[in-house]
Amino acid sequence: MNIDDQIRLDIACACRILANEGMDDGLAGHISVRIPGTEEFWITPWGLYFDEMTASEIVRIDATGKVLEGKHPVNFAVVIHLAIHEARPDAGAIVHTHPPHTTAFSALGRELEPFDQIGAFIFEDQAVYPEFTGSVYTMEGARPIAAAVGVKRIAILKNHGLITIGPNLMAALGDTLIAERAARIQILATQAGARSADTITADVARQTKKANIRPSVYEDMWRALMRRLHKSDPDLFATEGARGAALT
């Protein structure tokens, strides 16, 4: 399987994982992966739910959002990806979703706190875009989001949702799952009466993040997710090449 086919399959797998986790949102949300050594990207198309995504549906675009290959248009909000990729040459992949707990928490316009060790994994690595001014369809509207993201792995968009940025899709998807888990735990903890004084201390949170956030952890998470996906969504792996590649 060549690199382009692998990227397309990986994006389709990420879509199915998010759908299976209840983290999709109708036609909203999008995932992009930079084609190594280029200013071109594979990205999810407009008009399909995540739970029906396959590798053949993913489209290739250039740095202006023009479709170069594929049978579908892209979401107008592709500009969010283009602006972040423009500002972050280190960004190999971007996941933008509206997962329920993180989106609910985003109304507060602040960072998630480390109420458990998973919350510590993203400690001091979150940006917040503090206002919602409507759907973003232009680069002028998207560049302030990219500026707010800065060099962080995760961005919480007030009244909107979540963006994760990683060197590859394994990391960006992993951080999406981590952020949603942290948001769910924080909401449950505060409903039970917990307050900021009950969070993990800063030193312990930093230590916990350092011990757990490394490439091998994302790789192990990805392999485990792929094993689960082979059972839940076997249609994604219809060819012999796909069956082997998705576990590597």
Furnish the topology, listing elements before pairings.
Blueprint: H1 3-20, E1 30-34, E2 41-43, E3 59-61, E4 67-69, H2 78-87, E5 93-97, H3 100-106, H4 117-120, E6 126-129, H5 139-149, E7 154-157, E8 161-166, H6 169-191, H7 202-212, H8 215-232, H9 240-245
Parallel strand pairs: 6-7
Antiparallel strand pairs: 1-2, 1-5, 2-3, 3-4, 5-8, 7-8
Description:
The protein is α+β, with helices and mostly antiparallel strands and 248 residues long. The protein has nine helices and eight strands. It has an eight-stranded mixed beta sheet with strand order 4-3-2-1-5-8-7-6, sandwiched between helices. The longest helix has 23 residues, at 169-191. It is globular, with a radius of gyration of 17 Å. The relative contact order is 0.16.
Per CATH, the architecture is 3-Layer(aba) Sandwich
- How many structural domains does the protein architecture include? 1
CATH superfamily: Class II aldolase/adducin N-terminal domain
Number of strands: 8
Mean pLDDT over all positions:
95
Q: In whole angstroms, how far apart are the ends?
A: 11 Å
Shape: globular
Largest sheet: 8 strands, mixed
Tally of DSSP helical segments: 9
Query: Beta fraction of the residues?
Result: 5-15%
Q: CATH topology, which one?
A: L-fuculose-1-phosphate Aldolase
For the biggest β-sheet, the strand order reads 4-3-2-1-5-8-7-6
CA radius of gyration is 17 Å
What is the name of the CATH class? Alpha Beta
